[in-house]
Amino acid sequence: MDNEEKKLRQEIFERVKKIYALRKAGEKFEKGKTRIPYAGRVYDEREMISLVDSSLDFWLTTGRYAHEFEARLAEYVGAKYAMLTNSGSSANLLALTALTSPKLADKRLKPGDEVITVAAGFPTTVNPIVQNGLVPVFVDVELGTYNIDVSKLEQAVSGKTKAIMIAHALGNPFDLDAVTKFAKKHGLYLVEDCCDALGAEYDGRKVGTFGELGTLSFYPAHQMTMGEGGAVLAGEPRLKLIVESFRDWGRDCWCDPGKDNTCGKRFAWQLGKLPFGYDHKYVYSHVGYNLKVVDMQPAIGVEQLKKLPGFVRKRRENFEVLLKHMKPHEASFVLPRALPKANPSPFGFPLTVKEGAGFARNEITAHLEARGIATRLLFAGNLTKQPAYEGVKFRVAGELKNTDTIMNDTFWVGVYPGLTEEMIAHMLASFDEFMKLKKKR
Q: Which pLDDT does position 1 carry in this prediction?
């Protein structure tokens, strides 16, 4: 890049700063009028400048920002490898599909094998199991943590069980001591869905590093964002290459975009039934996809990652404010809780309306929504009751009593770093107002 281009870029960046300042100056919270979202992007001029910088490069696929982000992300979570993809859902698909690779020989997952999971969660934790011809085995969860009930794990196992794929619910780590011990005992793969849990820790260690594979999402609602985007975490080189192969069309070649002959023998391979010397760039070892990112996404991500520790800290602070305020209402709600070794990175603040509370979930969510406070359910509630799964083969270990309770009685509100003190005060006052109205009846 010559000096003239550097000068022009700097002029553009200065104007981007001014655009951000104008937008920020126009923000104003008006109680009852300004909507309080459950989540949202939190950024400043640095993300905008980085995005513009990448766009000026006009490198329209994975490039320098992606490599930088993958390295920094792996360092942050303590994983050996981090592989970017275009969404958290794609990350889940790649992680589970990687375990079906022929390169894993007799340890690969095959159609008909079973994968232990939960029905109380987001569909794309379970969908890859179905999409690969495997059978989900649903286990109930606990109220309060909203994570898998580990006391029910043993009854979920059969001779066909080969893996566990579960999420850390709303950023709250599940019992990794019990789950990893169980997985080791039965020789099962563990895939940690950390899409809602980036920055969460268990026993001082970041989640996503306990299983063979972990997944992350960078959708705007999550702990950090690059718009759409996700990542797969791995500690084993073989799994890294398999994930990248499925992500990059199923190719056997591992050259970066725009590079050739990294292996030094591009025309000296003999694979499958292809002739000797067939161009390795066009050899495919998996039936894959194209799930890559464009470099403008990690350009945002590298700046967001610098802010991530502060984002997580603020989420925890907001969560604690809500928890303290709702403690007097514990007779009406199941309040959220975490395991002693868990240090959540809260995605939201969940509440379950108790039986006998004198009101239904829909009443309190309608009250909050009418006051501009966004509420959300715990995603699919009970996946086995969703229309998409009516014809899907699955097995239920025991009963899904708490899962059904979540479907009927659980909701959550936001704790994301963009919430101001005024917003949180309005949220708390709205909870109090509702409870006072119910007591008068």
A: 78
